[in-house]
Amino acid sequence: MLKNSxxxxxxxxxxxxxxGGEITKNEAMFVLKFPSEYLELLFECATQIREKFRGNKIxxxxxxxAKSGLCPEDCKFCAQSTKWKxxxxxxxxxxVEEAVQKAKEAYNxxxxxFGIVTSGRGPTDKEVEIICEMVREIRKNVPGIAPDATLGxxxxxxxxxxxxxxxxHSNHNIETSPRFFSKICTTHxxxxxxxxxxxxxxxxIGVCCGCIFGMGETYEDRVEIAFELKKIDPKIIPIxxxxxxxxxxxxxxxxxxxxxxxxxxxxxxxxxxxKQIKVAGGREVxxxxxQDWVIKAGADDLMVGNYLTTPGQDYRKxxxxxxxxxxxxxxxxxxxxxxxxxxxxxx
Length: 347
Fold this sequence. Notes:
The structure is a single chain. The chain is of the alpha/beta class. The protein is built from 14 helices and 9 strands. It has a 7-stranded parallel β-sheet, covered by helices on one side. Strands 4-5 form a two-stranded parallel sheet.
């Protein structure tokens, strides 16, 4: 009887979303608190929504830590802050040549987007000029991949230069809910982040905006995050899960469980059914050998390769994961795979 009760409500919510309706915050909370013993039912419904609005394709993206550490902000999750004593590599902006090489590697891992990411509150005008050159050279030398830039706070003038250079998207996460934000960062505000997001939108750069789950926020915060992102209306919603970094204030935060994380993805899919939902940082450590749950819960985009200061899994495992679930890979992966097979056969 209990399962029938949960199933009835979930299917009613699913039908509402499939028919173009919107769920309420109470219904989003219902997804977050859905019994773990019925997780396959939640997966079935989330998959229906993903397939209806996003089809049966998967996308891959990759990033390069183009400027590491040296950040004056105090985000408690981040190993790149100068406020914390962490054992990471610290270096200034990489060369244009290295960025192009990394873009080529990302393309060969199956990525269709390549994010140039720098630490710090925001770039200098000189750094923006160099990054614009990176973007132009990547477009010239790696035509199959779209160069993106994640640079922190931007002025409108800087954003226009990036747009003119060929930047398609820029990531600027809200990180968490407005209520919880000051518990995570005090050197800038939630409103500061929204201002940069609005600048990106104003100049015509596609916004990639998401969050980090598992930093000690409440279920109410998680629901608020999803509805804030609905209001922001980004092109892509990246979901990260905290992978506690030694030396940061959150180093002892308990890692979120796989079933709890899956419910976060599913809740985001129910609230934002038409969006491209990317699962990025923390998925390997959170899901372990249950990586298929990421897709089953509603994601249609994965970050491949390494993250900013932590390693990712072998990109070929992500290809195989997608194929095992019947998803269609990006077209150029077929070309890469065919070329590799021919090379192996001839040797």
